[in-house]
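Reopening this one. Same input as before:
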Amino acid sequence: MTDVRDEPIVFEPFPEPRRRGRTAVKAALALAVAVLLVAGAVGVWAKGQISPGSPGAEVQVVVPRGASTARIAAILDAEGVISNARLFKLYAKYKGEGGFQAGSYQLHKHADFDDVLAVLGKGAKAESQRLTIPEGLTLVQIADRVGRLPGRSAAKFLDLARSGQFTSPYLPAGSTNLEGLLFPSTYELKPTEDEAAILQRMLNVFADVGAQVGLDQSQARVGLTPYQVVIVASMIEREARVAGERGMVARVVYNRLQKGIKLGIDATIRYGVDRPTQPLRKSDLAKDTPFNTRLHAGLPPTPIAAPGEATLQAALNPTPGPWLFYVLADQSGHHTFASTDAEFQRAVAVCRQQKLC
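Same output, byte for byte:
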C-alpha cells in the first residue's frame, strides 16, 4: 500500500466586509473628485470663452438673409468675434436667443457672448445700399448693375424680369417683355430688399413717372399708344446726346412715321445684333432682325433701352419742325438736322470729312 499523508487544507479568507466597504467609498469619492475637477476645468474654460475679457478691435459682420444661428455663429467665429461657434450656438439656445435679423452689425473681436447677443438682438443697422441705373441701359445691363450689389444676382434678377410674374400698366396684353419699363434712377435699397423687390420698385417708379408726364394721354398728344411712346423715347435716349435735341429727334421720328419712311436708326440695329457700343459692321446693317429699321418700316417691336423722365417728356412733346434727317455734327454730340435729302447729304459729307461718321 502507498503511504498517503493527509495534506493540510488551506482556506483563503473572504475580504473583511468593513474593509471592502471602505474601499468602495474611497473609489466613489475619488471618482466624484475627478468629475468635479473635470467639470470645474470645463467650467473655467467655458467661462473664458463666454467672457474672454477686454474686447478687441471693431469689426463689421454681415448676416445673410435666412441665416440660422449655427450659420451666424460660424460667421462670428470666422471674423474673430467669438472663438467657439458650437459653444455660442448652445449659449444662445440656453439664453433663448435666435432668429436674428439679416444685415450689417458692428461688433468687436474677442467679445463677450452676452454683448454679441445684445447687439444681434437689437437688429441690423438700417444701412442703405445705393443702386444707380443711368438712362439708356438695356434690361441686361440693368441686371448687371443689380448683380454688383452684395448678395444679389444678375441672373436671378433677369430671370424674374423675364418670368412673366411682373408687369407694368404700359405693357401690351400678352407681352412679358419688360425692356424699357424699368425706371433709370438712383435707388437707396435696404439690405433686405431682394431681386424681386428691386424689380418691383423700378416698375412702380416708372409707372409713377409715366403718370406724371401724361403717358396715358399719348394717343391724343402724338397719336401713339403709351407703349409705342416708350419705344420712341428709348430710341431718343440712345440717339440724342445733347439734352436740347431730344425734342428734335422725336420730331424726326414722328415725321418719318407719318410719311411712311423707314426710320433707319442705328441704335435699333445695334440692339438687334447685340452690339450696344461696338462699331456696326456692314453685315450688321444687312442683318434681318425685327429691330433693323433700315429694312423694316415703322417702330421696332419693343423699346431698346430705359428712357428717363426728360426723354419721355420729349417723346410726348416733340419740337415743331419739318426735319426728316439728322447726322452727327461734332465731337460733343450735336447733330445737324435736315428736311431734304440734299441737305442731309451735305451734312453727311461734313460728318465724314471730320471723321465723325
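So the earlier flakiness isn't reproducible anymore. For the record, Residues 1-6 have pLDDT under 50 and may be disordered.
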